[in-house]
Amino acid sequence: MTPNAASASSAPSRRNFLASTAVAAVAVGGGMPLLAACGGSGGGSREGTTSGKDAKKLLPAYVASNVVAPDIPSKNGSSMGFTAKLDVATLKTSVPKKLGKGGKVTIMSPFWGSPPKGNNPYYTSMNDLIGVDVQWRNQDGNIYDQKLGAVLASSAMPDVVVVPGWNMMGKIPSAIIGKFADLGPYLSGDKVKEYPNLAAIPTDAWQRSIFGGKLMGLPMPASSVPNIVPLYRQDIFDKEGYEVPRSADEFMALCKEITNARAKRWACGDMKWTAFGNFGVLGGGEKPLWWNMVDGKLINRIETPEYLEAIEWTRKLFAAGVVHPNFKLGKSQIADPAPKFAAGEFLIWNNNIVNWYAQQASLATQNPDVKVWGMDIWGHDGGDPTLYAQNPAGIFAFVNKKASESVIRDVLAVANVTAAPYGTKEWMMTNYGVEGTHYTIKDGVPVKNDKGNNEVVNAYVMVASPAATTAHPDLPDYTKAMVEWEQRMGAFTKKSSFWGLQITEPSRYTNLVNDFEQLEDDIIRGHKKISDMQQAISDWKSKGGDKLRDWYKKLLDENGSAAN
User: Fold this and answer.
1) In angstroms, rounded to a whole number, what is the distance separating the alpha carbons of residues 211 and 504?
2) Residue ranges with strand state E in 420-488
3) CA distance readout (Å), 93 to 420, 423, 426, 427
4) Which of 85, 412, 424, 433 could serve as 94's disulfide partner, Cβ 3.0–4.6 Å?
5) Number of other CB atoms surrounding residue 322 within 10 Å
6) Distance, CA of 117 to CA of 136 (rounded, Å)
7) Which residues of 460-493 are buried (b: 16+ CB within 10 A; e: fewer)?
8) CA distance readout (Å), 21 to 203, 334, 525
9) What's the pTM value of the predicted model, to 2 decimals?
């Protein structure tokens, strides 16, 4: 068991990459219909959305891959799961011939950690497989927004720029529309069939890739099920006889039972993101998902009683002293909670679902008896929860508008390899590199060595990805548990009115809610009061929130909703 053993998880996010150093919060996903002008369909508008028949004309034809069948098919918006070990000798081929024509392509992408040298064996092997000379311009993922803004404002852009959804703020969306190429002439309709792995990307993810009435992004698909899981130390629960709670009151009672500060044991971390699920708060990671039609009126999540109730309940956990002290400091001061969780200093931890596997694999190397498991999200009153879907794509690669046709086709050749499904030679090379150089096979499972960990990371996977997949052959029981958790939670998951719409808000409104997360955290930690939030909501309405509501309502009237 090793955290480096073969693993694939539904679409990486900022928090996947920073899993070992950041408290997991809500991950950004992507979605379904798309952007046209607010005043009508079609071309070039820098705000609004494209949906309905206008989007259908742009979307690539969907052709499901039959190269490898999952052990656990997708259900209720879940990822698909692979539990069988990879037989490296019998991996399938999804790209029978090189589509690249040998040209050079420069790519700028966020990178967490120290980027490897440009001529390393992983990069050269991938380039040989694809038939394209990819040259990486990796940038620090922690401050990528700063670099992104500068590059998009310059006249010297790389051929490809990767833009995560969490960086699509301020002027970035309109810059995307103005600076990047229309891929429709290469991918819309049956044209995509030249690139079979791209054709197998779900339509929802492609719809998310329409900006300003044009198909512009190469997407990284994700499960639409909310991805925050309350992980807990089941081994300690079993030893102490603790029962998994089913309501807010039961959770508080359990936390008080667990906590013994003198013995250096607390119940949990900051549970805000789980609380949003427990109380049925609108969400999904991106601001358009904070809006929903309720009883004929368009409301924002900050206006709902559930939002305030979730914040207040989380505040009570801090006030009761059951939250590990590690979480009481400001976000920039919080130390990595993982060692505290590993030591059993706290037993319940909000986390991105991808880190369920990572925590188990890591802790098991220290203690073979450890068992990290995931709680189902419960309704605060003990009933079923009401959850809201995240968008099914949230990281995109864009091609420079000035790129020649040969460069665009070489980029698509790169994406056709990186979007190869799990269980193929192309997936193996993209995610593990070269056998013997970057990984070895142990007990039928590929395990990266130090060179693999340093080189095979944060690069080609950012260009395009296959349909959301969970696969950990070294821990098949955890693969099964993760996918089944998504499927159970998916049964309670709704799509809010703007789910799947790639929306560009008018720039005058883009910063309206920027300070709300900090205010939430200040209230939860006792530095501010609920009345401060109520005042902030009132200010939000008067400073543009009500006008933004009118803008969204017009958008909904003209484009319709993807919500079921």
Assistant:
1) 8
2) 439-442, 445-448, 469-471
3) 9, 9, 7, 9
4) 424
5) 23
6) 10
7) bbbbbbbbbbbbbbbbbebbbbbbebbbebbebb
8) 34, 9, 21
9) 0.84
Which tens digits make up the pLDDT trace of 78-125? 999 999 888 888 899 999 999 999 999 999 999 988 899 999 999 999
Sign of CA dihedral 562, 286, 353, 220: positive
> If we measure between CA atoms, which residue out of 256, 375, 393 comes closest to residue 319?
256
Inter-residue contact 520 to 311 (CB < 8 Å): yes
Contact 449, 439 (CB under 8 A): yes
**Of the given ranges (10-14, 63-67, 323-327, 357-361), which has the lowest mean pLDDT?**
10-14
Instruction: Yes or no: say if 96 and 444 are a contact pair by the CB < 8 Å rule.
Output: no
What SS3 state is found at 479? Answer: helix
Residue with tokens 């990266």: 448
The rounded Cα 379 to chain-centroid distance in angstroms is: 24
At 506, is the pLDDT very low, low, confident or very high (cuts 50, 70, 90)? confident
Dihedral sign, Cα of residue 548, residue 44, residue 106, residue 60: positive
* Region 272-280 average pLDDT: 96
Place of tokens 């034809």: 61
Cα separation of 18 and 21, whole Å?
5
d(CA 330, CA 27): 20
List the one residue out of 473, 476, 480, 478 whose CA is nearest residue 445. Answer: 473
Instruction: List residues bridging with 230 in a β-sheet.
Output: 350
